[in-house]
Amino acid sequence: MVRFKFLLLAFGIASIVALSGCSSVGSGISVSLASSTTTIQQDQTLAITATVANDSTNAGVAWSLSGPGELTNISTSAVTYGAPTTVSANTSATVTATSVANKNVSTSITITVDAVFEITTFSFPGGTLGVAYAGEVTAGGAATPFTWTITSGSLPSGLTLTTSTSTSFVTISGTPTLVGTSTFTLQVTNTGGTSVSQTFSITISPPPPLIVVSGSLIDGTVGAAYSDTLQAANGVPPYSWSITSGSLPSGLSLSTAGVISGTPTTTGTSTFTVKITDSSTPTAETATGTLSLTVNPNTVNNSKLSGNYAFLVTGFDASGHFTAAGSFVADGAGNITSGIMDSNDPANLLLDQSFNGTYIIGENDLGTMTFTGIGRTFALAMMADGNARIIEFDSTGAQDSGVLLKQDTAAFSTSQITGGYAFGFLGADPQGNRYGFAGEFSANGSGTFTSGVLDSDGVSGIASDVAFTGTYSVSSNGRGTMALFSSGQTVNCSFYVVSAQELFAIEIDDISGQNRQIVSGSILQQTGAGSFSGASLNATSILETTAVQSSVGSFTPQSQVGLLTPTGNVNLAFSADENTGGTLTTPSGSGTYSVAANGRTTLTNSGIAASDPVLYLVSENEAFIIGTDPSVTFGFMEPQSGTFANSSLSGTYAGGSLPPFVTNAVSQVDAATADGAGSLTFVTDSSSTGSGINQNASSSGTYSVATNGRGTVTENASTTAIFYMASPTEYWSLFTDANATVEEFQQ
Predict the structure, then answer these.
(1) pLDDT tens-place string over residues 312-336
(2) Fold of 118-205
(3) What is the rounded distance in angstroms from the CA atom of residue 203 to the CA atom of residue 240?
(4) CA separation for the pair 654, 671 (Å, rounded)
(5) Cis bond leading into 282, ω under 30°?
């Protein structure tokens, strides 16, 4: 039987009392801790309270954790310890409380976490007749290998149980051949001979009817080349499309493959009905859908996108974590003359995909670009410097966002990549959970990485200060490849050169079926590599982080934006606004930091996350942020400059959301205009799995900026965003809704 877990009720007291510190300040202070027990099971929580005697300031304590698990509900008098979801053997963690008034006084409590051998999956998803199926069941609480068997019942016809015993999970997969519900009992046995069982059911449903799923079509522009592809669901391809009533705008036509293309000649909105016929046998299915397409006047700024560009996008598609990077040449007149792209997800690794395409930039600097040949369209918000924020903006099922930056073609050689570099990569682990790492290395300009170190963070644990080496090469088109070697493991990546100071990288290991990690991110050349010190943090920085809190069957986004202020080469102060699934808090910290010569920076009592993250410096007050917590905190910080007021926010800003970190998030790009006196307007293009694409949505509100750069946006009497200004030309915004989206704006 699966053992059920319950939260422990608080009863009884277990206390440990620290000796008083010898400082003259706070002399006689002592700290004691109380909890209901010191032994819990995996995935349980334990409330701990602290009492500080003889503290006239009533400042309470600061908390720290050594060992597995995490701390939540942190206050100056209490904390909640959460044990890891699973542990393979009994383990322990130590929670320490330190007097804020006298840091020489502290006490600790050691918590024993008992492993429970159990099946941790409670249900399988349903399947569809004739559609490939894959479901995974996981066990924990003991060392692998495990042996899995079906002891009663049977799987749906067409599905099989894999025979692997080398991991903690097993997969049921195949293509269902019969409709109905199958019930079966699955037993897992560990190396010690202990077995546990769980009864499951899998329901196979008939395939849903063929439907037209194209929602809003991309707007066209008079005189500009147009292309958009209609999408269907549930049928058997290939499809045949036709128009049964109404008509397309003048100059456009629909191919039988579902591509609307041509060059619009008149403005206006056309409504029409399309019919789709699939290839089902013996009788083909049909469906209809009514669509509309708007053609706008030809007021374009296509010259703003001109030259060589590199791009990086990250997010999700139907297979899981998705990432892509590439480069192209834009002619300044609406045409992409050549391009290449690499993409990776658990279903497909696609390298060196060639494309050309078209684009259009509107007078508000929002636009779209379409990659012909690989069937992808992106919305973009142009900045004044010719760079852009981008999101996927089509019906491919991908939900991703990223950046588009102008390339320095003079850096297209191996010899140009030289010196110290810091990096931050984020993605998914072999189970599809959030995973990231950050670090630094030295490139010798001849194809070798040396002196590399990194820190990784994932649901299953962290790795600190891991050494690695590597190799790399750059071709004449600006596409490079690299391999990172550490502890017998190799991570292979392609990268695209933005400049000698910046690279976009994605992992190109084949992860079919999510059999290993997949990550992507930026690599930035360090200023002061090898000579960093405590003095490298010498001014206030703004920072952003994202994380995902997980529990059985749910994932809660957690984001924050805020300020990190170092003082005296060792101390720091932190204050921020945080959104956890729509719940707003204002975390803060007052701690210390230590900077190594290579830029690796460790924090103590920072308050940035449940466990202190690690920084990898790019330059003074600029760094990648990698967490040490199961929620996998990840982010970036950069210097803040100026004293602020409402007048600091003035002019037009291009905005784009950070890559989505939960599957139901909304990706968007914006053109935001501030009047310098408290009024703000937005024009937004957005995309989501739930509501499809939405173009040119307008909104307005008011804003207020404090002297430290923290501001709020109010729309319809509600605060919709909290932002922090890096300078009068850049700010980072945290949405207050349940998606906890972070968006970066820049002029």
Answers:
(1) 999 999 899 999 999 999 999 999 9
(2) Immunoglobulin-like (2.60.40)
(3) 32
(4) 5
(5) yes
Instruction: Give the pair of three-digit tokens for residue 602.
Output: 């460790």
Tokens of 205: 């449903």
CATH number assigned to the domain with residue range 409-525, chosen from the 4 options 3.40.50.300, 2.40.400.10, 2.40.128.120, 3.30.1490.10: 2.40.128.120
The side-by-side arrangement of strands in the sheet containing 195-205 is 127-128, 195-205, 180-189, 147-153
pLDDT digits (tens, 9 = 90+) for 409-422: 999 999 999 999 99
Q: Hey, what CATH class is 534-639 in?
A: mainly beta
List, for residues 672-705, the tens digit of each pLDDT value.
999 999 999 999 999 987 777 888 899 999 999 9
Distance CA 20, CA 102 (A): 9
What's the pLDDT score for residue 207? Answer: 85
Is it the case that residue 19 has pLDDT exceeding 60?
Answer: no
Instruction: Kindly report the CATH number that applies to the domain delimited by 30-114.
Output: 2.60.40.10
- The predicted pLDDT at position 553 comes to 61
Q: According to the model, what pLDDT value does residue 490 have?
A: 93
Q: How far apart (Å, rounded) are the C-alpha atoms in residues 351 and 648?
A: 44
Residue 7 token pair = 């939260």
DSSP class per residue in 478-527: SEEEEEEEETTEEEEEEEEEEETTEEEEEE-S--TTT-S-EEEEEEEE-S
CATH fold label, 302-406 = Lipocalin (2.40.128)
For residue 56, count other CB atoms closer than 10 A to its CB: 9
**Distance between CA 529 and CA 617 in Å, rounded?**
9
Residue with tokens 């972070």: 742
The neighbouring-strand residues paired with 381 are 366, 389
* pLDDT tens figures, 609-646: 989 999 999 999 999 999 999 999 999 999 999 899 99
- Count Cβ atoms below 10 Å from residue 434 Cβ, excluding itself: 25
Q: Residue for token digits 């010190």?
A: 533
Q: What is the 3-state secondary structure (H, E, C) of 66-103?
A: ECCCEEECCCCCEEEEECCCCCCCCEEEEEEEEECCCC
- Say what the pLDDT of residue 164 is: 59
166 confidence band (pLDDT: 50, 70, 90): low
Nearest CA to 543 out of 577, 501, 585, 584 is that of 577
Read off φ and ψ for residue 478, nearest 5 degrees.
90, 0
Q: Report the distance separating Cα 683 and Cα 113, nearest Å.
A: 52
Query: Are 118-205 and 302-406 equal in CATH topology?
Result: no
Q: Distance between CA atoms of 634 and 616, rounded to whole angstroms?
A: 12
Contact by Cβ (8 Å): 216, 695: yes
Do the Cβ atoms of 461 and 91 come closer than 8 Å?
no
Q: How far apart are CA 634 and CA 314, in angstroms?
A: 14
The confidence band for 575, taking pLDDT boundaries of 50, 70 and 90, is very high
pLDDT at 55 (0 to 100): 92
Q: How confident is the model at residue 14 (pLDDT cuts 50, 70, 90)?
A: very low
Q: What share of the chain is helix, strand, coil (3-state, %, to 5)?
A: 0, 60, 40
- In the 8-state DSSP scheme, what is residue 234? S
Rounded to an integer, the average pLDDT of 149-155 is 95
Sequence-distant (6+) residues with CB within 8 A of 715 are 699, 700, 701
Which amino acid belongs to residue 240?
Answer: S
Q: Are 376 and 339 in contact (CB under 8 A)?
A: no
534 φ/ψ angles, rounded to the nearest 5 degrees: -55, -30
Rounded to 10 degrees, the C-alpha dihedral 343/348/351/352 comes to -80
The CA dihedral of 527, 533, 538, 542, to the nearest 10 degrees, is 60
Alpha helices in 315-356 (DSSP H): none
